[in-house]
From TrEMBL:
InterPro entries: Cys/Met-Metab_PyrdxlP-dep_enz, Cys_b_lyase_bac, PyrdxlP-dep_Trfase, PyrdxlP-dep_Trfase_major, PyrdxlP-dep_Trfase_small. Belongs to the trans-sulfuration enzymes family. Its EC number is 4.4.1.13. Pfam families: Cys_Met_Meta_PP. Its cofactor is pyridoxal 5'-phosphate. It catalyses: L,L-cystathionine + H2O = L-homocysteine + pyruvate + NH4(+). CDD domains: CGS_like. The modification N6-(pyridoxal phosphate)lysine is found at K212. It comes from Gimibacter soli. Transmembrane segments: none annotated. Keywords: Lyase, Pyridoxal phosphate. This is Cystathionine beta-lyase. One of its GO terms (molecular function) is cysteine-S-conjugate beta-lyase activity. GO terms for biological process: L-cysteine catabolic process to pyruvate; transsulfuration.
Amino acid sequence: MSDNKKSTKIETRLITDGRRDEWTHGIVNPPVYRASTCLFDSYATMRERAKDPAARHLYYGRKGTPTQWSLEEALTDLEGGAGTKLYPSGVAAVNSAILGLVSAGDHVLMVDSAYEPTRAFARSILQRFGVETSFYDPMAGENIAADFRENTKLVVAESPGSLTFEVQDIPAIAAVCRDKGAWLLVDNTWATPLYCNPLALGADVSVHAVTKYIGGHSDLMMGSVTANERAYPLIEKAAFSLGQTVSPDDAFLASRGLRTLAARLKIHEEKALTVARWLRERPEVAKVLHPAFEDCRGHAIWKRDFKGSTGLFSVILKDGTDADTAPMVDHMRLFRMGFSWGGYESLILPSNPAGSRSATHWAAPGPLLRLHIGLEDTDDLIADLADGLDRYREHMARK
Ligand SMILES: *Cc1c(COP(=O)(O)O)cnc(C)c1O
């Protein structure tokens, strides 16, 4: 990356990154190169390329083609790392990165609000291979030092946390990790590279479920891992050993999503704030968990370390159980029910964090609904939620 490029604003780099002329051949986007076999024109070329298979030359389909390299290069620049690998899902990205950084006998410290499948991975495969995991309070900050063991090798953070949106003090945790000689991995999916750069805050590895905002259109599964100079060789080696690769078609879609990320995020952010502020005033709502709200845990850290908020937040209702949300969520017109998020459409999902917390205790007066605010008109979204909350209130009154 030239200094000239470094000084350009991130919104501009989002448009120009990864579009090398030798990859695009005079059109705007790198073409979709579908390849398993790449042909060598001579014995010497084959030998030469085998020497450094990680270099960006055509070698074998699993190493990628310019379609994947373009996306990797863009993410590396946007996250400010030394390199990026792509994976067939966000879960594959987090878990492969962990496998690259730990060995039997090591201990992993994972945030209590980590994405549930990452917790499950720690408790199954990692444990089976002799790696112990314990969980820490997302608000620990520098106090995480007390949770370190002699053999702690890696801290797995996610900020804000899944479902409950606690914002973590990454610089404070990074300082402890440096002091103790442990790696720090941050799942940066919520913020995207536009609103937070964990590597600049002291992390070694930044992970994305590209499936979410980077893809942005609910039509692909992908993950990415971007790492600093020190961690990248380990990340790359693990990705290669595990055979991690993505199709050029999906890489093309993800690159296309990336180009409009700044424009989409700004709208998700504004609309989510409008809907969240409206929800806060509703009598059925006990609390809105949104990092941009002062009463969100870690709000001051969000203000310090993030450049914006996105479209995903949670609402806690005043009373009832998960099952009591059925009359509301079953009849929504725009907020459809489904996993994932980050597409153009709004989503609603009843979720209960109680089952996936161990270092902290989840207590709430009523059920939690996770909302993703899409690009629809906010008056329409609010009308849908108003009718839904009316159904919830009537159902609770009849109980
Ligand atoms: C969705 C998600 C993942 C997993 O991504 P998939 O592509 O669904 O495997 C990981 N981390 C966070 C924070 C997520 O929201």
